[in-house]
Write a structure and sequence with these properties.
The structure is a single chain. By secondary structure, this protein is α+β, with helices and mostly antiparallel strands. The chain is 51% helix and 18% strand. The chain contains 11 helices and 11 strands. The chain has helices at 10-21, 26-33, 37-47, 50-53, 57-63, 72-85, 90-100, 109-122, 126-137, 159-188, 219-230, and strands at 2-7, 144-146, 152-154, 193-194, 197-198, 200-206, 209-214, 233-236, 239-242, 245-250, 260-263. A 5-stranded antiparallel sheet has the order 6-7-1-10-11. The chain has a two-stranded antiparallel sheet with strand order 2-3.
Amino acid sequence: YVFQADLKASDGWTIGAHMARLGDSTMLEDLKFGLKPAQIVCFILRHGYDRLAKTTRSEAKELLKEVKKEDQDYFICKQLIWGACYLMGPRKAAEQVFKETYGKINLTEKEAKAFQASVFVRYRVKLWHDWMSRFLSKQPYPPKLTSASGHTRKFFGRSREILGKALSHEPQAVTTYATNLAAYNLWMDKENRDGNKLKVEPLHQVHDALVGQFKITDLEFAKVKIKQWFNNTIIIAGIPIVIPYSGTYGTNWSFDEKSMVGEI
């Protein structure tokens, strides 16, 4: 079987951790409860925020069931939500959706602005923006930022350019680090060795996803081990977090109705 394991709301955990440290735990608590920020934003775009504002997270989870993974507006929200947190402008956001849909969806700037407003109505992302701006300004040029893996990046350019780059860098670096840890665990696990071969073999890695394969007879072994390999506590903004994943396996990488076998 081929498998793919994707981190859930990957960049959001870093953004949520920083916002929780700054006094707004809404995004982090949403993620811990299993609510998808992109799904929430999609619901807000459809109905406004009033229907969610006074609900419990259990009640919100029921309301959000109307937002299906195949819905076009949900796809747009998934494409743009983290970019909105990284100071992506509405014009660039519209261009990204146009590119990702091969020209099928052409948002206006007004529609892109409405999307961004829906993100900020629930999540006080400006708290993080303001903190990052202060953090960078207090350092000698070029300012630098160290992420959870210990990797440090220096930023060169105008202050506005630096801010956007710094905001996007750490969440993306943490996401890659979490995926790297899972791949490293797979490779180094002695129980995954069958002589000179791996029982579960890595095939490909894409930022927040790990793709691999294993013999059908090793299915139960793979199910247990993949959970172990992704179970890594990462300290983000001083908060210990295990970024969860969702995984599927089947007879080929398309995971369509014919090839998908189950979840892992």
